[in-house]
Amino acid sequence: MSEGTGPLVGEDGVARCPWGGGPAMIAYHDTEWGVPLHGEDAWFERLSLEGFQAGLSWRTILDKRQRFREVFHGFVVDEVAAMTDADLELLMADPGIVRNRAKVLATRGNARATQALRERGGLGALLASYAPEETPRPAVVEEVPTVSEESTALSKALRRLGFSFVGPTTMYALMEASGLVDTHLLGCHRRGVRHAT
Predict the structure, then answer these.
(1) Binding residue per annotation — 73?
(2) 58 is a catalytic site residue
(3) Please, are residues 97 and 64 in contact by the beta-carbon 8 Å criterion?
(4) Is 17 annotated as a binding residue?
(5) How many other CB atoms sit within 10 Å of the CB of residue 146?
(6) Which of 126, 138, 153, 167 is deepest in the core (most CB within 10 A)?
């Protein structure tokens, strides 16, 4: 095995990616991360939360996810697209979310860009079309990519379509979280989950 940080065996005897520690992160790692998404709203939520995560830890977003869902109407695309400037301004006083004005505005803008994509097959189909033919096979954390040729191309395509907070690294994180690539470490009990659902 390569040198570096490989899967860790928890108190329950199960080998996991080392970031999957603590009850909330274990639950997320074991039940959500890398599982394929279905439906426009699910893809839009993932895109939005990954955008909010840029520059922050995923744990921060996970801890605030329920409140994000409440204030952004469950990430129903049409409802977010219809939010007014006054609606968004109220969010800037809500400590339950990440109060970054540019990211809040981008969420509505991205909802509107998602609506426009419906005539071209939809957001999910576009994102999935950038999945690579081969997925990485990292044995240790140090071998996990943070960007790829495909995530860079996806980022450029989304920006051309009016999306924001969709940089190459953010899009690679989305690809990991939604099972478009599998970066569970070799030896992690969830390796291969994208093919098992």
Answers:
(1) no
(2) yes
(3) yes
(4) yes
(5) 11
(6) 138
| pTM > 0.90: yes or no | yes
The one catalytic residue in 45, 50, 150, 176 is 50
- Is-contact 16 35, C-beta < 8 A? no
How far apart are alpha carbons 49 and 68 in whole angstroms?
Answer: 8
Positive/negative CA dihedral, 171, 176, 180, 181: positive
Q: Find the catalytic residue in 19, 28, 130, 172.
A: 28
List the chain domain ranges.
37-182
Determine how many CB atoms are found less than 10 A away from the CB of residue 143. Answer: 16
Summarize pLDDT for 7-28 with one digit per residue, the tens.
Answer: 989 888 999 999 877 888 999 9
Please check if 188 is assigned to a binding site.
Answer: yes
In this structure, which topology does domain 37-182 adopt according to CATH? Endonuclease III; domain 1 (1.10.340)
